Structure formats: structure tokens, C-alpha cells
Amino acid sequence: MLPSTRRALPILLALVSAATAPSQLAGQFSDARLPRQGKLWLTIAPTLLNWSEQFAFDSSAAIVDGEREPLAAHFDGPLARRMFPPPFALIQELNDDAEALGFEPVTEDDFSFGGLDFSAMRAQVRRLALGVEVGVLDWVSVGARAPFTLTDMTVGFAFDSTATVTGNVAAFESGAPFVLDARSALDDLGELIDGGSLTGTALDEAVALRSATLDFVNALRRRASAGALIPTASSVAGTQMAQRFADFAAAFDALGLTLPELSLPEFATEEDYDTLFLSQGFADRLPRDTRNELDLGEVEVFLRVNLIDGITRRRPIPGPAADAAAGSDPGTDPERGIRLRTSVGALARLPIRNRNLTIFGDPSNSADIPIGDGQTDIELALYQDIAFGSLFMIRASARYGMQRPDEAVIRFTPPDRPYNQADLVALMRRDLGDYLAVLVRPSLRFNAALSVGLEYDYFRLPAPTYQFVGMIEGLDPNTVAAEGAQTRHRLGVGFLIDISEAGGVEELHEGARPVRGAYQFGISLRRAISGSGGRTPASFRYAAELRFPITIF
User: Fold this and answer.
1) Which helix (H) or strand (E) holds 452?
2) Burial letters for 494-517: b for 16+ Cβ neighbours within 10 Å, e otherwise?
3) Per-residue pLDDT reduced to its tens digit, 114-161
4) Alpha-carbon distance 49 to 47, whole Å?
5) For residues 293 and 126, what is the distance between their CA atoms, to the nearest angstrom?
6) Whole-prediction pTM
7) CA atoms of 534 and 548, how far apart (whole Å)
């Protein structure tokens, strides 16, 4: 039995929690360039992520590792078998009348409420990141980035009526024709028994028949009055019930009496499903449309250091004064050959506790997307630019992040049992694992300001680990880590206008030509092309970035 814990900071570990992976939250700098001393870069970067598929990992017998599967794959299918724990109380309550109704006790494997077929399930994360970076020295900068995040989940589903039980019991309520006709037949049999025309074995059989039939009819009437479940005609238990009542009817017919026809519901209906789940308190376990309104996410603070810079031009473009110097040697073309620009950085991503705790998700909604994971990350990064003459450039970055272990209240939602009959929560120690993210952007430079190219990013995250804080028997703490590892590859295109790079220098000598609007604007479109893990989003990423340089000292 799980301990009783407060629900203040429950963390939702549903399939869409992959949206809070560090690769989605981290600020991705355009290149290895830093602002010079006294310069401030103001960055505005809107990003849109959306997906309706994920990369499988043995989560479906029909889908191989890494193949795309619908986002709803963990939710489709039989409901009763996917409760956690299974609805043993309802099974036992149904089986209490198994003897009277003439069916073999139903097992967990045989018990079904029916299924859900999801017609639509789409996740979306919209983020507006505001960042500042200040050049402390020509080769050292510090900065911060604040992401304002909005998350959406759209869900559409239909009830699949294939079920072994139903709540449609109106036909067996007191006063219903079946009950009235059955009681009339039983009264006629009672009069026959009391009339003395039956003797010996025939009398004993008639008495036993009346008792068994009365038990059958009363059990149905009692279940109808309580709104309890009954087997459907298409189930094994329903078939056994129908055969039992057919035997009763044949025995009554041999005595010249007639029982009414037993008509069990063939299938459950959506109304039965709604009534059942509402009455049993299961409805709020189903995924539903969710929106976490725009709110401040996890703030990043960072430091970057430039090690090599053979790309950024440090001398001014010749102006009128320079042009007047007759016979001056223009010198070597600064954009010939292979040139490097290398920087390193360190970043801290800080956990926050916002006013409505949406960062930790809604424990009653299996489809809620938190806006963060609520723990501290430390990240080390390498930024490398390689210019090949003036026509081709590769911008690349590699980031290694260490997600610091912490303690949190965790809700158990194994992938194969997402509906959760009860809130099963406990205080746990968690380690979400270290991640690796690589971004490579080869581009063709049409001129010093305009470039267009391909973009590729790679992300890897191992499976997380969990431990109970305190002794809890009979549960594996890493149940919640199932399919938690992620590997993803995305490919796309990028477009960049960089007037500051084209201008050549950030400090101009007297007489030099001024830099025209020293800003940078970029657009990036990427699509997930492969991955694995089971809950790894097969996402589309649309992003833009606008950067303004401002002189502050």
C-alpha cells in the first residue's frame, strides 16, 4: 500500500512528458560568436513544437523499435485491463453472483469495459524566449534567458463497444416486462408445486428449478436496482448465462409453463461507458483537452568564453579617409581559406515554482504537458564555426547536460496502464539522467549577410531512475521510468540574415563606413526523421530568432 502523501507537487509521468526534455528548453545560440566588450545582445526567439506521433520501443507488438506510432498508442485498447491496479473490486462484485447467474467467475484477463479508439491526439508547445547576453570582455560574455511557455493537448476519442460487461440493466429493473413475466411464471410453478399434482422426483426437481430460477431472476433484479455490471451476450459469461436460462426455460416448458426470453445487451453503449466511468470515478483518469496558459518556464543563466576567432573581422571597412590614401596595399583577402571560431560555455537551468504549479502537470489528467521538469540542470557546451572561404560555413554546437537528482512526489502511470484507477503517489528520489544534444548547420553564403542551409540535430537521454524515500513493499520504483529513454534525429532547413557579420566590425574608426542595422534574423524548420524510446516525440520544430546589438558602455 502506498503512503498517503500531499498532492502539492505531483509530477505527471505520462507519455507526453517527453516534451519537457532539456533539448526543448535549452537556449540554442546561433554560433560561436560573442558580443564584444560593452555590447549587449537582446534576443527574441519564438518556437513552436507539435507532434501527433512518437517513436516506439516495443510498446506495440505490431510496431518495431523506432517505428512511428500514434501518440495515443498507450491509451487505445481495453480499459479494464489497463487500470493500475486492475479493478479487482468490480470483478469480485460481479463474481459474487456468478453461481446464481450460472457463469464461471470472470478473471482479470476476461474482464473488459470495452475500449477507446482515439481519433486525434496532438501535442503542441509554444515558447517565446527572451534573452540578453553582455560582453564583459571581448572574449567573455554572460547572459540569461527566460522562456515563456504555453502547452496544448488536443484529444478526440470514440468508445469501442466490444466489452464483457455493461451497465445497461434497465431491462431487469423491478417492473420491467422480463421481471414481471418471470415472476408470473414462478408463481405458476409455485401453484403447480403446491397443488399436489407433482410427486416424488418430479416434485423435488420442480422445487429445485423454482429455487434456482428465482435466484437467477432476483440476482438480475438486484444488480439492476444497484446499477451494477452484468455480462454482455457476446461475452463468455453472457453465453453461459443465456444457456443457463435456456435450460430453465426448457424445464418450464416441459411442465407446460413459459418463461420470458432473456435478452442480454449485445454490446455496451457509449452511454453505459459514460455512466460507468462517471459513477466509478474513472472519467477524470482519461486524457482530455488541456492547456497550460502562457507562463514563465525554467530560467537559464550562462557564461561563454571565446577561444579562437578567425572569422569575425576586427578591422574597419575602409571609409572615405582610407580611400584618400593613394597606392595603399589592400592586403590579403580576410575571407580566403579555412577559418575557425571556437567558444565554450556553461549554463545553469533553474527550477521554478509558479503560482499554479502547472510546471509539474495535472495528476488527474494523463495528457497534461508540464512546462518544465522542476529540477536543476548544469550544462557544458562547445560552439564551433568553420568558414570555407566566403561561400560556405558550418555552424555546430554540442551540449552535455547534467540533470541534478532531487526528490519529488511522483504519480505512477506505467505506459501499459495509463488510466489509473486511483491516485498512486509517493515521495521518490529521482535522477532524470545526463543528456547530449548536437546541432550541425552547414550553409551556403550568398553574400556576407545572407546564408541558407541544412540543419540537423541529435538528442540522447538515458532512462531515468527512481527510488522510494522510505520503505514501500511490493512495488518497483522504476515502473514510472518505463520507455523513459530518448533518442531523436531531426533534419531541416535554415535561413539567416546577419547584417552584423556583414558590417565587419563593431567599433568603427573615424571615416569608416557605418554598419547598417547590425542585427541578425534567422528562421529554422526541422522535422524528426528517426528516434526510439517509446515516448520520444516525432516532432516538427518551427523557430525564429531576432537579435539586436545594443551598446551599453
Assistant:
1) strand 450-461
2) bebebbbbbbbbbeeeeebeebee
3) 777 777 788 999 999 999 999 999 999 999 999 998 888 888 777 776
4) 7
5) 10
6) 0.74
7) 40
